[in-house]
Design brief:
2 helices, 201 residues, elongated, alpha/beta, 2 domains
Length: 201
């Protein structure tokens, strides 16, 4: 199925092409997104590296994998990538990771073995995700995550903390009304105390 993809640069390790499935519309080895003085001059930095895809990898339809600025963008053995995923230059994805649709991975991020990235999650560049981390859908990952953690939210936090936060959100109107009522009662009590103090003078 390799010929279904649009390929500009690709290097395969092990037995060439062994059990690799690249679905229609995928672009492998496109120019990495690298500029000096971004927002001022946007000077293009040549992207002269490669993409390396190991055995038993699947790349979903319309996914893009940028070639490295220097060195390699590396998709290791057994990785499964869904449709519409963006993988930036010099990213390393560890063995048997699973990347769900519409994930975006910024350049030079390193993803450990067995990591699972939920749909529409996004990772900033130059961070490290430890082995067997799970990232919930639509999470925004902004810093390193130690191995074995489960995270959610944007910016991300431990999943159990995110659940507590989300449980409070639906109760915010009720909590606001309770707070307003308590503040009103405090005002009334303070006014009474003040008036009694005045009488004593």
């Amino acid at each position: 199925m390799l010929l279904q993809a649009t390929i500009s640069i690709i290097t395969l390790t092990g037995i060439a092409g062994a059990a690799i499935n690249i679905l229609a519309g995928s672009v492998i080895g496109s120019d990495g997104f690298g500029f000096a003085r971004p927002g001022w001059e946007n000077v293009k930095i040549p992207q002269i590296g490669i993409v390396q895809i190991d055995d038993d990898v699947e790349v979903g339809a319309n996914t893009t994998i940028d070639r490295a600025a220097i060195g390699r963008t590396w998709i290791q053995r057994g990785v499964k990538i869904d449709n519409l995923v963006q993988i930036g230059h010099n990213v390393v994805i560890g063995e048997y990771a699973v990347i769900v649709a519409q994930v975006g991975i910024s350049g030079s991020t390193k993803i450990g073995k067995g990591v699972m990235l939920g749909g529409q999650s996004a990772l900033v560049g130059h961070i490290e995700i430890g082995d067997h981390v799970m990232v919930a859908a639509r999470s925004g990952v902004h810093k390193d995550i130690p191995q074995g953690q489960v995270v959610a939210g944007s910016p991300h936090k431990l999943h159990r903390d995110w659940l507590r936060t989300e449980a409070c959100i639906s109760r915010l109107p009720e909590m606001r009304n309770t707070m307003k009522a308590l503040l009103r009662r405090v005002e009334i009590l303070e006014a009474r105390l003040h008036s009694r103090g005045g009488e004593g003078d």
